[in-house]
Amino acid sequence: MPHSKTLNVTTAVLIISNLVPLAGVLFFDWIVFEVLLLFWAENVVIGAINVARLWTLYQRRNHGTLLLFIPFFCFHYGLFALVHLVFLMAVFRPDAPDSYSLAALFVPLAALVASHVYSHYAHFLGRQEYLHVTPQQLMTQPYSRVLALHVAILLGGWVVQWFGEPVLALVALVLVKIAFDVPAHRREHREKGEREKSQRAQAAGQKPPRDAVFKGWGDDRQGTDPH
């Protein structure tokens, strides 16, 4: 499947999986803590997927440094996730334990897991992105995706909580997450596709394609999807 079609499919899957929490908000009276806890759990999934990518790089490209990178990433990202969880529990968890349900998170979390796993197989393995990425890029990639997103979500969570958690505000919080997540997903895989084209051109002794140097030029000129 061409890169643009693969990216469009995985983007659609990501949007659908991100819309599942709306059912919890609209039909099951989710509170802001449940929404934020779901998005925190997705962070853990993103970290686990990145460990799988690092391991794939070790197996298929035999980068010896990854034997050090993988445990370091697990420790560092795990600490990041733990601090994030402690903050959520301290600030947003209701005093009454019966006011929220962890079991209710299973279906939307499963949808988000399926989205990320599918994207991993479609892009990293199917499109062989592992051939054109470095261990250093994989070490930093999850942070660039989740940090800005979750700063926005936490700020939004405070606003929602301040206004008494109305349904429309919770819906807006989910939509803000989608508005951050989808462009980050497309940017991540578009840049990898551009590196792939550039490396192939260099291997063939040619100049890199103009759109690999000035992003979007060639595609915008021709009226096609730059993704």
Strand content: under 5%
What's the story with the biggest beta sheet? none
How would you sum up the global shape? globular
- The average pLDDT value, as a whole number, equals 80
Number of helical stretches of at least 4 residues: 8
Structural class label: mainly alpha
Determine the fraction of residues in helical runs and give it as a percent range. Answer: over 70%
In total, the number of strands is: 0
Q: Uncertain spans, ≥5 residues at pLDDT below 50?
A: 208-227
Distance separating the two termini? 13 Å
Radius of gyration: 19 Å
The helix/strand series, from N terminus to C terminus, equals: HHHHHHHH
Jot down its keywords.
227 residues; mainly alpha; 78% helix
Describe the protein in words.
This protein has 227 residues and is an all-alpha fold. Helices cover 78% and strands 0% of the residues. The chain has eight helices and no strands. Helix 1 packs antiparallel against helix 4 (106-126) and helix 2 (32-61) runs antiparallel to helix 5 (135-162). The chain is globular.
